[in-house]
Specification:
Layout lengths: L1 H82 L5 H25 L5 H36 L3 H14 L18 H8 L6 H9 L18 H26 L6
Helix pairs in contact: 1-2, 1-3, 1-7, 2-3, 3-4, 3-6, 3-7, 4-5, 5-6
C-alpha cells in the first residue's frame, strides 16, 4: 500500500513538475517577447525622432534659402528703380511691389521655421529690406529727376547746365530745406526756381522733386543737415547694410544648421 502511494506521489510530482516547467518556460518566453517588443518600439521611436529632426532641418534650410533669394530679388528690384528710365517707372514700381510682397511671405515662413538663435539675424534682414522698399518709393523719383537733368547737361542744353549750377550753388549756400507743397520758398530758392522752370524738357513733376530736394546734399557732398540723406547716399548705405545683414544671417544659419563641416 505504501509502495502504491509512493508511486502515485512520484507520478503526480512528475506531472506537476512538467506543468510547472511549462508555465515557467512560457513566462520566460513571454518576458522575452515583451523585451523584443519594447526594443522594437524604442527603435521605431528613435527612427521617428531622427526623421522628425531631418525633416525640420530640411524645412529650415529650404525656408532660409528662399528668404535669402527673395531678399536678393527685392534689393535688386529696388536698386533698378534708381537707374531706370522714366518710361519704365510704372513697370519698375510694380516689380518692386511684387518682389517685396514675395519677400514678406517667405520672411513669415522663415520666422515660423527658424530656431530662436536666428531671430536677431532675421529681424535685421527684415529691417534692411523694408527700409530699402520705403526708400525707393520716397527717393528713387528724385534720383531719376536728377539723372534727367544730368543727361540734358551732357547733351549740352544751356538751360539745363545753368539750372544744375544753380542747384549746386543753393546746396553750398547754407539754404534751408523747403518743400514746394508747404508754404512760400525762402529767398535763396529764387534763382533755382527760375532756372528749373526755364528747362523746357523737364516736366512739372521733375521740377517739383528737384526743388523739394534742392538743398539736400548729394552722396559726395558734405552733409550739414542732421539725419538728412539724399537718394544716392541712402542707397549706398542701405546696400552696405544689406550685405552685412546677409552675411550675418548666412553665418548664423550655417552654425545653427551645422553645415560648416566639410
Amino acid at each position: 500500500m505504501d509502495t502504491e502511494i509512493t508511486i502515485a506521489l512520484i507520478g503526480a510530482a512528475g506531472v506537476c513538475g512538467t506543468i510547472a516547467g511549462t508555465i515557467v518556460g512560457a513566462r520566460i518566453q513571454a518576458h522575452g517577447g515583451y523585451a523584443q517588443a519594447q526594443a522594437a518600439r524604442d527603435a521605431a521611436a528613435t527612427a521617428a525622432q531622427a526623421g522628425r529632426r531631418q525633416a525640420l532641418h530640411d524645412l529650415r534650410w529650404t525656408s532660409l534659402t528662399a528668404l535669402l533669394r527673395a531678399a536678393a530679388e527685392c534689393m535688386e528690384a529696388t536698386g533698378q528703380m534708381y537707374t531706370s528710365s522714366e518710361e519704365r517707372a510704372d513697370a519698375g514700381r510694380a516689380e518692386v511691389e511684387r518682389a517685396y510682397h514675395a519677400y514678406r511671405l517667405v520672411q513669415a515662413e522663415a520666422e515660423l521655421a527658424a530656431p530662436p538663435e536666428l531671430r536677431e539675424a532675421l529681424d535685421r534682414m527684415r529691417a534692411v529690406v523694408m527700409g530699402a522698399w520705403h526708400d525707393v518709393r520716397m527717393q528713387a523719383p528724385t534720383e531719376r529727376a536728377q539723372r534727367a537733368l544730368d543727361e540734358l547737361c551732357r547733351e549740352g542744353d544751356p538751360a539745363a547746365i545753368y539750372a544744375k549750377g544753380a542747384l549746386t550753388r543753393l546746396r553750398t549756400s547754407e539754404a534751408p530745406l523747403w518743400n514746394p507743397l508747404f508754404g512760400n520758398p525762402p529767398a535763396e530758392y529764387e534763382e533755382v526756381i527760375d532756372a528749373l522752370n526755364a528747362v523746357p524738357r523737364l516736366n512739372r513733376q521733375q521740377i517739383r522733386l528737384l526743388l523739394a530736394n534742392a538743398a539736400v546734399p548729394l552722396e559726395y557732398e558734405r552733409n550739414r543737415f542732421e539725419n538728412v540723406r539724399g537718394a544716392r547716399q541712402a542707397r549706398t548705405e542701405r546696400q552696405r547694410a544689406y550685405e552685412a545683414a546677409r552675411h550675418q544671417l548666412i553665418a548664423a544659419a550655417r552654425d545653427v544648421l551645422n553645415t560648416n563641416e566639410p
